[in-house]
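Why do we care about 3D structure at all? Because function follows from shape, and shape follows, mostly, from sequence. That is the central idea of this module. The next example makes it concrete: a single protein chain, its amino acid sequence, and then its structure expressed as tokens.
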Amino acid sequence: MNSSLAAVAPCQRPLKVVHFVTGGFTGSTKVAIDLIRAVKNNPAFSTMLVLRKKSSTDPERIQQLQSEGISLKVVAGWSHLATIVELLRICREYQPDILVTHGFSEHLWGRYAGLLARVPHLIHVEHNSRERYTPLRLLQARWLAHYTDKIIGCSEGVRSRLLELGFPAHKIMAINNGIQLTDYINADTAPLAERIPGIIMPARFAKQKDHATLIRAIALLREKNIIVPVFFAGAGSARHIAKAKKLVDELQLNEQIHFAGHCGNLPFLLMRHQICVLSTHYEGMPLALAEGMAAGCAVIGSAVSGVQEMINHGSDGLLVKAQCAHAMADAIEILLQNSTYAQILAQQGRQRALTEFSLTRMAHTYEQVFFGLQEASIPTLPKQLLLEN
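And the structure:
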């Protein structure tokens, strides 16, 4: 074989990847940011984060990301057409190899822009087990699936839901969400008995979340003279925050329940509390629970799709009937009054987080997908050239 031909290789430039996601700083936003951070110092990648502007988009958090060296753009969110046009322009300028569109409805507008910009590879990441698919939007999503290389569910439960929705099975896969476990390296040095005997719920305020059930459970516990402090760590919709605060006022729980807003020191807060609760209506694969487990908290979650896959009831956490304040109160009481059982759940939950929910594992799997698409795009030399001497 001609040695010069044997040395031929594709251009070794970085793989250019754009992650497009809501600017509402939801769980899907965090996943996109974590994937970018994971390869920030890897010369094999050049990445960009594009956020769709929302009313809750925080300029300070954008500045913080930019100060980390993350290439970031914000596109209009006031109309779908404006979103598509601005993302189209960015794609034409940046010329990514792969456009990763995260969450609903961003994966629709993102893929329209990617198609128009002729981005070589499109990826749709579904972050929830229940999205607001109208018949028209489901029709659009199925059409776009024909031009999409991979459709990724953030858990096995979400993957199953994608199959139920009629997306092409051969394109669907599951990649579990992951968290930065090094943030919780000191969790073992804070035994449960030495922590605040209280609850932290790390979740944004939105229609999806169910802060009200936890608030009502705290009121029921107070009737039994069980006074437990609650720390709501999360920003979100002003309307839903106001609604929760009104309920707290009505039940006279202001001294017990604290609204902290966005908390940049969430790992520290989790490792100071005994119990982490996620009261919710539906999920994909909630990072809040993964973080609570990694922090060594005893965790409680609503028995809904996306949460049921994360907690082995009675082994590494407790599942309670959704929207049932009495069930939530009973679970909290069990953990507060049986410290040995709570400690066992916390230890086994932490072990599961360490083995199954790492950011390293998630990022590596995504990287394999990206490189697989790149390799599929590399043209092979004609057979007659390979046989030349």
